[in-house]
Amino acid sequence: MVSNERKRKKANTLFAALLATLFLLGLVTGMLIVHIADTRRRDSLIAGYEEKIKSLENEKEHIKESTTVYVPERKRIFGKIPGNSWNIDGFVLEDGFMAYYDEEGNKISHLGIDLSYHQKNVDWEALKESPVEFVILRCGYRGYSEGGLVMDERFREYAAKCNEYDIPMGVYFFTQAITVEEARAEADFVINLIKDYTISYPVVFDTEYVSEETARTNTVEISDELRTDMIIAFCERISEEGYYPMFYASENWVRRNMEFERLSDYDLWAALYYEENDFLFDHTIWQYSSTGYVPGIDTEVDLDISMVDYAAFVPALRKAKIEEGMIKSVPASEDAYIIPEEDGEAFDG
Question: Residue 251 and residue 274: Cα distance in Å, rounded?
Fold first, then answer.
């Protein structure tokens, strides 16, 4: 009887010891699991912080190496629509070519020409040594009847020569678009043509009157709103690829066929064949003659002057696009924007 009681007590003691051991083992295991989880969580946090630090360092290095473009703003006059801000007395003929001087007497204009297959013989060395500072090439056009997109037959040759002789170059496309979608397609066509060349001047949407009655833009109704929408569509697409968009038109074409007040985000290349620049609307390049002559070309050419030095910043825009750089505007002056209070009606078009 006593022996059985001892056995029972011994068994209870062993069971209690086993329970205690299991409890301690569970406690230690739990603590170990928590420690491992905490260690993993800590390691994960550390790895995350290290990744963020590395990302910030890479971003800092990218910013240091990427291109920052400073685009100069300019003095502009706004009434109901943007008006001509250039001083008419600042335009003068010098040695047979037009020039522009600002109010301080500084020459700020740059002489240019536009070329296409019509100018078949170009002496590029002579042109390089001439007063010409930039060239705008016709890169292509849309056909009058069937509407096909066509590259100017001299474009690649002339574009390569401009780059070879370090002559700043822009391009224009003669549109016959009748829908917004076609205008975007024209922009894509141009982007594909110019991607292998250095572009230092604007990429221009050339919209103008066509005398041929069967031309597709004469056979459908194009409202002022639609034409403006097409200009915007082309310019937006060009800008997306890091190029500087512009549109070309005469004063009458602007006045009668577009909503110019919606186009203040884009520069205008103005066609006005006259010795005085009394063009009504805001513009940055003036095509002032269609019967000019310059050294290196034995046929008539269109003569232009630009009041903006596009070559100073346009090439960097494309580089900034490729490198994901930054673009900043630099105000021309405190009175860069002038808003007439009383004579706004003068710019009503």
Answer: 12
Q: Tell me which of 38-42, 126-130, 206-210 is least confident.
A: 38-42
Quick: pLDDT tens for 211-251: 999 999 999 999 999 999 999 999 999 999 999 999 999 99
DSSP code of 215? S
Res 209: pLDDT: 92
Give me 252's structure tokens. Answer: 């009458």
- For residue 81, the model assigns a pLDDT of 79
Spatial distance between the Cα atoms of 98 and 39, rounded to a whole number of angstroms: 77
Q: Which of 47-61, 138-152, 175-189 has the lowest mean pLDDT?
A: 47-61
The CATH number of 70-347, from 3.30.720.120, 3.40.50.1980, 3.40.50.720, 3.20.20.80, is: 3.20.20.80
Structure tokens at 37: 């989880």
Cβ neighbourhood burial of 14 (10 Å; 0-12, 13-18, 19+): exposed
The tokens for 235 are 């310019």
Rounded CA separation 248/114 (Å): 12
Separation between Cα atoms, residue 216 and residue 86, nearest integer Å: 36
Question: Please, are residues 137 and 169 in contact by the beta-carbon 8 Å criterion?
Answer: yes
The full DSSP string for 239-284 is HHTT--EEEEEEHHHHHHHS-GGG-TTSEEEEE--SSS---SB--S
Model confidence at 181, pLDDT cuts 50, 70, 90, reads very high
